[in-house]
Design goal:
Layout lengths: L4 E2 L10 E4 H10 L7 E9 L3 E9 L7 E4 L5 E4 L4 H4 L2 E8 L2 E7 L3 E4 L6 E3 L1
Parallel strand pairs: 2-7, 3-6
Antiparallel strand pairs: 1-2, 3-4, 5-6, 7-8, 9-10
Length: 122
């Protein structure tokens, strides 16, 4: 299996995240009914190990967000307070049987809970 990674050229933080082509297509499909909106990644305190990823479709980025122009139709934003938790993360969309799943390949993670709900970084 070969995974292609899209490394954006327009970003306010070049090491924030990388999106695979399948992730870009997935997010673009989610924005079809809300043109002009953006996908925003943030984190929240959750689970037994610390943090959980939160993805939202929002009208615009918040002040301080890192913005990645992933394609003509996709702007992907990372909340300012999540940047250090997700730096250098690759986000991929993969099919597992009949289901599609977003995978966060975060090199900063030192521990994840058994159910995959939460993570913590060093």
């Amino acid at each position: 299996m070969h995974v292609e990674t899209y490394t954006p050229t327009q970003t306010t933080d070049g090491d924030a995240v990388r999106l695979t082509e399948t992730a870009i297509r997935h997010f673009e499909s989610k924005l079809v009914s809300t043109p002009g909106h953006v996908v925003r990644l943030s984190t929240k305190t959750s689970g037994c190990t610390g943090y959980a990823y939160v993805l939202d479709i929002v009208a615009e980025a918040k002040t301080g967000d890192a913005a990645i122009q992933a394609s003509d139709r996709l702007t992907f934003c990372i909340a300012a307070d999540a940047l250090n938790l997700v730096r250098n993360t690759e986000i991929d969309y993969v099919k597992e049987g009949l289901n599609g799943v977003l995978k966060f390949n975060n090199p900063n993670v030192v521990v994840e809970c058994g159910c995959g709900e939460s993570f913590n970084v060093s």
